[in-house]
Amino acid sequence: MAHCERASKPLLQCLRNTYSRGIAGAQLQTRAFQSTASVREPEAETTNQPFHKAPDPSLVTSPRLERRLLRQGTAPIGSRRRRAALQDSANIPFEQLPYQCFQEARKVLLADREEKLKEIETMRQRLARQESLSVEEAGGEKAKKSRVTAMQLHLERLKILADINDPLVKRNFEDGEGDMSKPIYRFLADRKWREYRRKILVQRITQMKVIPDVLPHCDPVVDTRMYFGKRQVQAGEFVEARASTSAPKLDIQIFEGGEKLVTIAIVDPDIPNVEANSFDYKTHFLAVNVPISATSTKVDLSKLLEDSQVVLPWLPPVAQKGSPYHRLSVFIMEQKNSRPLNFEAIKAKETSRDVTLRTLQASYHLKAIGAHLFRTQWDDTTLEVMKEIGFNGANVELRRARVEPLPYKRRNPSSFR
Amino acid sequence: MAAREPSRFLSRALPRASVPSIRPQGFLSRRNVSDEAPSRRLSDHLSELESASSLSTPVPDSAAQSFDPVARAKARKTQLPRGRYQFRSPKYDRGPLHPHQPPPASDPSSRLFVPGPFSAPRAEQTYDATVAADIMSLCYVHTPPGFTPPPKAPRLREWDDSSPYHKNRVLRGPRGGDVLRLLRKPIKFNNIPEIERITIHSYVNKAATENSSWLHVAGIAVQAISNVRVETFKSKTSVANWGIVPGRDSVAVKAELYGENMYHFLGKLVDVVLPRIKDWEGVKGTSGDSSGNITFGMEPENVALFPEIEVNYDMYPPKMIPGCHITLHTSARTDKDARLLLSAMGIPFYGKIVN
Amino acid sequence: MFKPRVLAPLRALERAFTPTIRSTNALSQSQSVLRTLSASTFPKTTPTPSLSRTLLPFSQVRYASHASQGTANRHSRDPAGKRLGAKRSGGEYVVPGCIIFRQRGSKWFPGENCAMGRDHTIYATQAGYVQYYLDPLKHSERRFIGVVFNKDEKLPHPRNAPSRRKLNMVSVPMAEKVVGQSDLVASVDENGVQVSDVAAVDAQSGPQWRPGYMYRDANWQIGRAAEAAGITAMPYDRRNRWLAWRKREQRAERAAQMKSLKGKKKTSKK
Amino acid sequence: MKSLSPALASLANVFRVPMSMAPARPSVSRVCHETLNRQQQKPGPVTAALQSASFSTTGAMAKRKSGGSTTDKRITMIRYFLHHPLTPRPLRFSRNRYLRHWTIHRAWQLFQAQQRRKQELELMRQYQSMQEACEELRTGAGDGGKLFRVSMNKKGIFTDMFPIEYARMQTETPPAEGWNYDWKKPERK
C-alpha cells in the first residue's frame, strides 16, 4: 500500500509525511488533551529502550509508531501537532508559566481562596456552636433546625467558591477526572448536566406524556443513563425486543454528598386491553432499598439482591403486532429520609404487576428524583421473545376497529335559506 | 465516608447565568445523622476541597527563567504538523435543545467575544471618586431613626360608589391627567443617579430622496464617534414632502453606547466638543422626558468637531456629515436629578428650567 | 326605477348580517328592516362612503353620477356566504373526522382529541361528545373545542391527570406467514452434522408490482445486475492524486460547458 | 483566467476592478503585453479584452462623460469599510492559552466585584456618618435642634444644579498654570 513504501524512505523524508486519515481521525476528541502539567514520566523508563521500541503515547508523532501503539491497545493522546510540540517542551507546571497578566490574576484568586478558607473555618465554628446549643436556647426545635440547615448550605457553598476559580479543577473536570466525592466536581457535573442533557430528558418525558400518565410530577435531580448490554439508550429510543430481554444497567449520578436509598420502578402504561378498549399499566420491574451515592453510581438491575431488594423481577417488554408503541418509563424514587422500607411486607403485598405507580408512590411516600424512558414496538425478534417468556397474546394481531359512521339524517330542504 | 449531607442548592453567590437559582426544598437528613458529630473538625471540611489546587502555592520566581517559547519556535527545524480540529461557534441560535450550542460571550472562541476593557475612562473614575459622594451629600435629607413617611393617598383613585355599576370597575386615573409619573425614591447611598446609556440617533432625510450614500456617510460618522456599529431603521410613516413611505428605505441610524464606550464618549463630549461649539449656551433647560433622560441636538458642523471626524475630515464628502440627537439615559427618576447629575459631569444647562 | 338600486345593497346587507332574518319580498317589510338595520348596525360601524350615500333618506337620493375612482362597482359585488360557524354543538356525539367548527383564522383552538385542518377547521379525532371550554392552564385567552368519551365528563381535565385514551383496536388471529424453506440444510452423517446452504426457493424473483407504482425487480436483484453482467469499476484509491486531478479537471470542464450552454440558451431565447 | 475567491470578488465590484482580468500568473500578462505592442493596428479578440482593462485610449473626462460611474471615491471607500466582507474568524486558543484566558477573566470579574463592593461600603459609611452627625446635632446640641433646623434648609445653595465650574474631569497631571486664586465667575450678559 503506498503508505508503507513511504515508510521505507529515509527517516528525514518520513518526518515530512502528511497525515493518514485513519489514525488522526480515530482520536478526534474535542479538547480532551492531556495537560502539560503532568510531570513527564521518569526518564529512566525510556532511556534503556530506544524511543521507537516503547513509544510514549503522549509524545509519539510518526504514524507507524502510532499504529503500533494502537495495536497494543494504548491510543496516542491528543493531536499529533500537540505531541510534536510537547517533544521538546520544558514542561513547566501550568501555574508557574511566567505570563505576567496570568500571574497577576492568580494572585487575586489566591487571596480570594485564602479568604474563603478563613470563612470556612469561622462558619464551621459557628455551626459547631449552634449545634451545641440546647433546643430551648436556640429558640425551639424548628428554629434550630432551620438555622443549622442554612449554615450547612452556606458551608457547602463556601467550599465550592474556594475551588470554582481554579484552572486545574476546570481542566480535571473537562478531562473527566473529576472525583465526585468533592463538592466542586459534583457542582460542575450538575451544571453541565442541566445545561443540555436534563432539558432533553424533560422534553422527552413531557412530550411523550409519561409525566401525566405514570406520575403527576417529576423534577429530575439525578442524572440517569441506561445501558442494554453495551449500548447506551437515549431517552425515548426504540429498543429491540431481543436487547430488552435482559434487565438494563443504570448509571445514576447524584450531585450531592452522602448516600441515598432509592426505589427503582419500570412501568409500561400502554398495555392494550381490547375488551375495555383502553390501556392498562404493568410494572416490569420494582426494586427497593437500592443504595446510590455520588461515587458509587452503577446499578445493574439484574444483579440486585433477590431477598432484600427486588420486589418484582425483570419482565421483558413485548408489544403485540399492530399495537401502538409501548413507553417504558424508568423512575428513580427516593425513599422518605432515605429510610429502608420493610422488604418482606412489600414483597408480600405487591405481588400483582398491574398496580399503578401513583398508588405505590402514595403508599410508600416516594419522591421521584430521576427518570428515563425507552420504547418497544413489534419487530422481527419479538415473536421469539414472546415464545420464550410464554406471552399469551403471541399469535394475536391488533387491527384498527372500524368506525361506525353517524346515523343517516335526511337533508331537510325546508330548513335551507 | 458518608460525608455530612449538606447542600441542597448552592447557586446564590455563583454567577446567576450559569446556575438557575432553585428554591431550597425540604432538607434531606441523612440516614446516620444522629450518631455522627455534626460539627466535624476543620480538616474534614478542608479535605473536601481540591487538594492539588493550583491556587494554594504562590509562584516560586526561579521556576521559569528557562521559559522562552519564541526561541523554541525558531529553533524547530520542521514545521509542526497542521492542527486538524478547528472549533467554530455556531452562527445561528437553533434553540436550547440543539446539541451544538454557542459558547458564552466571555469565551474567546465565541462570535460575540469582545476583548476586555483596555482603559479606565476618566469620566467613570471622576463619577466614582467625587461626583457620586457629592450628589449623595447634596441631596441628603435627614430623617430621624424610626421615622416613617406619612402614608400617601393611592395614586389610582377609587370610584365613589354613587351608582351600583361602580363595583369591580377598573380604578380611575391619577389626579391631574392620566399619565403616571415615575415614583422618586429619596437619594441614598444605594440610589445615587448614574448614567446608564447614551443613544446617538441621526435622521438622514436625503437617504430617502437621493441615493444611499447619505446613509452610509451618516453610518460611518456615527460609528466613528461612538465606536459602536450603528443600526439602521426604515421609515415607519409616510410623509409626502419628505418623500418617505413606510418601510421603503432606511432613513435613520442609531448607536447605543454602554459601559466603557459610553464613558469615553461622554469624556470627549464634555472636554473636547462642547467647549469648541461657537456661541453655544448649553442644553435647553426644558429638555428631558421627566423620567431622567436628557436629549440635545448637534448640528452637522458641531458633529465635525469630534476628534475622530476632524482627524480625517477630508475623507468625508462635504455637506454629508450628519447632525444627530444625543440622549443621555440616567437612572434618575426625574429631570431635576438627571440635570443635577449631568451638570456635575460637565454638561451646561441654560434657559428656563422645567421639571 | 331607483328601487332595485336602493334595494340591491340592502339585500346584500341583510344576507351579510343576520342570515336568520327571513327576507320577504314585500317592500314594506324590507323598508322596516332597512330602518332597523340602519339604526342597529350603522352607528357602530363606520359606514363606507358608498353605503351611506345610497341609504340617505329617500327625498335626497342622488344617482352615482360622478363615480368616484375605484369605488364605482365595489358595492355591487356580493360573494356567496361561506357557511362558517359551528357544525356540532356542545354535547353532540361525533365520530373521528366529524367537522365541528369551520372558521377563518383560529377563533377556536383544537383541544382534547381534536385537530385543526389546513383552513383552521376543527374536527374530531376520537368518537365522543363535543365540549366547548376554556383551559387557563394551557392558554389564558384561547377557547378550546374538545371531545370527551362519556357525556358527563367535564373539560378541562384537572392538572396532570392521566390522559384518557381509547385503544380502538380489535384482536385478530395472526395470518400464518408463508414460511419459505430455509436455505440452510442440515444433514447428519458419520462425522457429525453437515450444514450446507441451498438456493432459497420462494424468493419471488422477477419483476413484481412494487410500492411507488413501479413494476420492477427487487432492489437486491437490481443491485446484483452489474455483478451478473461482469462489469467491474476501478477500486477507489485515495492516494492516487493524478487520477483525482484528472477527475477534477473533467468536472470543471463539464461545469464550464453547462454554464456556457445555459448562457447560449438564454441568449438564443432573447 | 482563474476568477477571484468569492470574498475578494465582492471587494472587486466595490472598486470596479474587472473580474477576470486579475492575471493569475504574471507570465500570461507579460505575453499579452508583447503581442499588444506588436500588432497595434488590428486588435484581436484577446487584445480587445485586454484593452478595456489594462490601459485605456479614451481620456479621463471622456470616460466620465460617456456615462461611467461618477460616485465620489470617498463614498466608495466608506462603503468598503462599512460592508467589509472579510469578518475576522473567531479566536481559537490552545487548551493552555484558553485556561490562562479563563483564569484572567475570572480574576477580573472577581476584582471588579470587590471594587464595586468597596465603593458601596464606602458610600454607606459616608451616609451613616452624615446621619449620625445630623442626629447628634439634632438631639445633642442642647439648643433643642434649632441649629439643626437652620442647617437643614437648602435655600440658595445649588440644590438645583452644580455650578459648571465644579464639573472638571479628573486629569493625569495637575494643570500647567496651577490654581488661579483670583478668578471671578464672568457676569452673564
From TrEMBL, chain A:
Query: What span is annotated as the signal peptide, if there is one?
Result: none
Q: What is this protein called?
A: Large ribosomal subunit protein mL38
Region feature Disordered, mapped onto this chain: 34-59
**Keywords of the record:** Mitochondrion
Q: What does this protein do?
A: Component of the mitochondrial ribosome (mitoribosome), a dedicated translation machinery responsible for the synthesis of mitochondrial genome-encoded proteins, including at least some of the essential transmembrane subunits of the mitochondrial respiratory chain. The mitoribosomes are attached to the mitochondrial inner membrane and translation products are cotranslationally integrated into the membrane.
- The question of whether Metal-binding is a record keyword is answered with no
Where is this protein found? Mitochondrion
Gene Ontology CC, one term: mitochondrion
Q: Which organism is it from?
A: Penicillium arizonense
Superkingdom per UniProt: Eukaryota
Query: What family is this protein classified in?
Result: Belongs to the phosphatidylethanolamine-binding protein family. Mitochondrion-specific ribosomal protein mL38 subfamily.
UniProtKB/TrEMBL annotation, chain B:
Keywords per UniProt: Ribonucleoprotein, Ribosomal protein
A GO molecular function for this record?
structural constituent of ribosome
This protein's GO cellular component annotations are:
ribonucleoprotein complex; ribosome
The Large ribosomal subunit protein uL5 C-terminal domain covers 251-349
SUPFAM superfamilies (alphabetical):
RL5-like
Q: Where is this region: Disordered?
A: 1-111
Any one GO BP annotation for this protein:
translation
Signal sequence segment: none
Bias category Basic and acidic residues: which stretches?
Answer: 32-48
Which InterPro entries does the annotation name? Ribosomal_uL5 (IPR002132), Ribosomal_uL5_C (IPR031309), Ribosomal_uL5_dom_sf (IPR022803)
Q: Give the family, as the similarity comment puts it.
A: Belongs to the universal ribosomal protein uL5 family.
Q: What is this protein called?
A: Large ribosomal subunit protein uL5m
Lineage of the species this protein comes from? Eukaryota, Fungi, Dikarya, Ascomycota, Pezizomycotina
TrEMBL record, chain C:
Q: What is this protein called?
A: Large ribosomal subunit protein bL27m
Q: Which domain of life is it from?
A: Eukaryota
**Cleaved signal peptide residues:** none
Looking at the keywords, is Nucleus present? no
Q: Per the annotation, which location comes first and is thus the protein's main one?
A: mitochondrion
User: Example GO molecular function term?
Assistant: structural constituent of ribosome
Q: Which UniProt keywords apply?
A: Mitochondrion, Ribonucleoprotein, Ribosomal protein
Q: Where is this region: Disordered?
A: 66-87
Q: Which organism is it from?
A: Penicillium arizonense
The terms describing its cellular component in GO are: mitochondrial large ribosomal subunit
One record GO biological process: translation
UniProtKB/TrEMBL annotation, chain D:
Q: Where is the signal peptide?
A: none
Keyword Mitochondrion on entry: yes
**Principal cellular location given in the protein's record:** mitochondrion
- One Pfam family for this entry, by name? MRP-L28
InterPro entries this protein is in? Ribosomal_mL40, Ribosomal_mL40_fung
Gene3D superfamilies reported in the protein's UniProt record: 6.10.250.3440
Keywords tagged on the record:
Mitochondrion, Ribonucleoprotein, Ribosomal protein, Transit peptide
Instruction: Report the domain of life of the source organism.
Output: Eukaryota
Question: Per the UniProt entry, what are the Gene Ontology biological process annotations, in alphabetical order?
Answer: mitochondrial translation
Q: Name one GO molecular function term.
A: structural constituent of ribosome
Q: Which GO terms describe its cellular component?
A: mitochondrion; ribonucleoprotein complex; ribosome
Where located? Mitochondrion
Which protein family is named in the record? Belongs to the mitochondrion-specific ribosomal protein mL40 family.
The molecule here is called Large ribosomal subunit protein mL40
Taxonomic source organism: Penicillium arizonense
Recite the lineage of the species.
Eukaryota, Fungi, Dikarya, Ascomycota, Pezizomycotina
